[in-house]
Amino acid sequence: MSRNLIKPPAQRGACWQSQRSIEVRKLDISTDYKLPKALASQLLTAKDATLRAAALNALVMATIPEGHTGFLEVDGEQREILTAGTHVWWQFNHTIKVTQLDCRLQNMEVNGQEILTKDRVGLRINLSAMWQIVDPQQVKTALADHKDYLYRELQLALRAVVSTQTLDELLADKNLLNQSIQQTVAEKAAAYGIDLKTVGARDIVLPGDMKAILAQVVEAEKRAEANLIRRREETQETRSLHNTAKVMEGNPVLLRLKELEILEKITGRISTLNVYGGLDGVMNDLVKLTDKCKA
């Protein structure tokens, strides 16, 4: 029996007659050139090495992973959209090509580039974008390189938005920058079957001299805030002392308690105290707020 068990179209084959049964199966592959899964598995996993080798030469196999969409092109014309799984075709008399697109959620990093703000400050901004293909057929038909297209659109939108804002505006509200870029690019990308999920500015890099200037500005602002807080505290303390003095002025008992409190603090901070006039001198002459108030 002939060892070449797969015959291409328009060829003849011969087999020796024997006691073995011989089966010849003819397949019309002029239009239906895709193999059923059972036949493809039988040929590609055959125990006969000659049959397996003949199958590999006669077949085209493609595996589409989960989350991807495949496209079958036959003789330069798209014929089928392929779902996840393994697909096998006869390649006789046809040029078969399979391409695929990743339809999972993906991330794109846009590297920083020198950009001038509205007030002519040069800076670098790095962008990060989350996107997903929602219409694979539209992407394949309209775009030669969808990743390059999206990257360029993000770059252009970043330049356009930054040029309309001052440095202070960018630093004050980075979310506004993100929203403006996403709004600009999302509409264009949607027309080609791409859904731009989020856009975020990861880093805003300033030149060295500008960093020093901003550091000085921030330091001056913080120092002014600290001085304002300190003045408020001093004013509050003065007001409290004034209120306390007015209360003590009309209350001799409270005034005496305050004198004893001060006396306690004084005696607690010194190691030796010379007393003249005995206990009465200590209690009445050492601390006298009334005379100071009158003075």
TrEMBL record:
It comes from the Bacteria. It comes from Thiothrix fructosivorans. The lineage of its organism: Bacteria, Pseudomonadati, Pseudomonadota, Gammaproteobacteria, Thiotrichales. InterPro entries: Band-7_stomatin-like, Band_7, Band_7/SPFH_dom_sf, Stomatin_HflK_fam. This is Slipin family protein. GO terms for cellular component: plasma membrane; side of membrane. Its main location: membrane. Belongs to the band 7/mec-2 family. PANTHER family: BAND 7 PROTEIN-RELATED, BLL5629 PROTEIN. It is found in: Membrane. Pfam families: Band_7. It is a single-pass membrane protein. Residues 59-218 form the Band domain.
